[in-house]
Specification:
alpha/beta; Rossmann fold; 7-stranded mixed beta sheet; 5-stranded parallel beta sheet; 12 helices; 16 strands; about 20% strand; binds dihydroflavine-adenine dinucleotide
Length: about 400
């Protein structure tokens, strides 16, 4: 079978490139994915008993201030007017996040004005100078002071990393936003919303083109399938969005990731927590947060009123067998990544992209934006000659 471009991975990065090459240049594109579904980590599906849409790899909230990306994604889906807000359960009380004047006044049982709160936090943060932190704890205290750090950051961070913040490098956090007003909108991008008929419908529309063939359950490194690395590289241009260390058989070392474990439950009640995401800041609670999926779509009247779906989230270091979610990015990782970048130079017809291919956490709009740039700046000039 003749193809003009092979895309490894059907996440947002891979599908954006595939869609552009097929529609813009009329090229034949094959997209392979080792999973049994398209969409990468943004995939969602209705929970069978309730029909409530569940984001299978953790909650996905779309937001962007990039007008090019916004115009592009609106070709495939409409968005609801959902605005994300998060609360945190600490010491038997619920507080709004990100830390704002509401959080501060509730925590200190006070009615501070913005200036009073600013002066209070500045005084508490003076315990450590910002530039001299020896670890994450000192850095966090230098930004928000000890009381707020100990309540909202210390144990939550320890659960995320399974490591005490005193043993984590200061660079893990660069800033801890504190808002001196009552605004608790989580994102401050120009555009925000959730796909009206779900992520999977959006993703399927991107792949719905006669020139795009998607092959699922197909691993690029499996030499028994047609479009494997050995058979394709050097013959057909490849966009590779799998893990960069796997591509080079880990010869520059194994890059480290955090993964998440999810525990999903259908409960016989209409509403469990009254909000989509509740963090758990106490060290005594083993999970980091609970998602309740019905609240992502309050407009969906078809959802049952006597059942709800919740998902507890637990965080830990990933092994090679786990889903890699967040790059840990240790000094050793950064060194390995440099060696992989050098190796990539020897593969001129393979384009590494996306979260796994570049070892970077990317939000969806960033994955789509960088795929559009790669298409315009590298792939289109190269592939133009192959188009009919
Ligand atoms: P993605 O990981 O989606 O796709 C890569 C694909 O490659 C996968 O389908 C994989 O199976 C496939 N693959 C890998 N190796 C292969 C091989 N050898 N052969 C064949 N296929 C192979 N973003 C956001 O904007 N808002 C949010 O709220 C969230 N929330 C969120 C939560 C969690 C827990 C995570 C981990 C991530 C988010 N994101 C997010 C980020 C979002 O998931 C991310 O932007 C996209 O997944 C990036 O798309 P990619 O195509 O780069 O990777």
């Amino acid at each position: 079978m003749t193809v003009d471009l092979l895309v490894v991975g059907s996440g947002f990065f891979g599908l954006t490139v595939a869609e552009r090459a097929a529609r813009d240049l009329d090229l034949k594109v094959v997209v392979i994915d080792q999973r049994s579904h398209i969409g990468g980590n943004a995939y969602s599906a209705p929970e069978p008993e309730t029909g409530i849409e569940v984001h299978q790899y953790g909650a996905h909230l779309f937001h962007t201030s990039n007008e090019t990306v916004w115009e592009y994604v609106n070709r495939f889906t409409k968005f609801t007017d959902y605005e994300h807000r998060v609360f945190t359960n600490f010491g038997g009380e619920v507080f709004p996040l990100p830390i704002n004047l509401g959080t501060i006044n509730q925590f200190f049982r006070a009615a501070y004005s913005p200036d009073e709160a600013r002066a209070l936090i500045k005084g508490q943060a003076a315990e450590f100078a910002t530039g001299e932190s020896r670890n994450l704890e000192e850095k966090a205290i230098s930004l928000i002071g000890r009381p707020l750090y100990e309540a909202f950051i210390r144990d939550y961070t320890a659960k995320q990393w399974q490591t005490a913040p005193t043993a984590l490098p200061a660079e893990v956090i660069s800033r801890l936003p504190v808002r001196y007003n009552y605004d608790n909108r989580y994102f401050n991008d120009t555009h925000e919303g959730l796909p009206v008929d779900g992520y999977t419908a959006w993703i399927e529309r991107m792949a719905d083109h006669p020139n795009i063939e998607v092959r699922l359950n197909t691993d690029f490194f499996d030499e028994t399938q047609e479009f494997n690395k050995k058979a394709v590289v050097g013959r057909t241009p490849v966009v590779y969005t799998g893990p960069v260390d796997r591509y080079f058989d880990y010869q520059g070392g194994e890059l480290t990731w955090r993964t998440l474990d999810f525990e999903q439950e259908v409960l016989p009640i209409g509403d469990f927590q009254g909000t989509p995401v509740m963090n758990y800041a106490d060290g005594s609670v083993p999970y980091t947060r609970i998602h309740e999926f019905r609240h992502f779509h309050p407009e969906r009247t078809e959802y049952p009123t006597d059942k709800t779906v919740i998902m507890r989230e637990f965080s830990r270091a990933a092994t090679r067998a786990d889903e890699p979610y967040y790059p840990i990015n240790t000094p050793a990782d950064r060194e390995s990544l440099l060696s992989y970048r050098a190796l990539q130079a020897g593969e001129p017809n393979v384009f590494f992209g996306g979260r796994l291919g570049t070892y970077q956490y990317l939000d969806m709009h960033m994955a789509i934006g960088s795929a559009l740039s790669m298409y315009d700046n590298k792939l289109k000039p190269l592939l133009r000659g192959s188009s009919k």
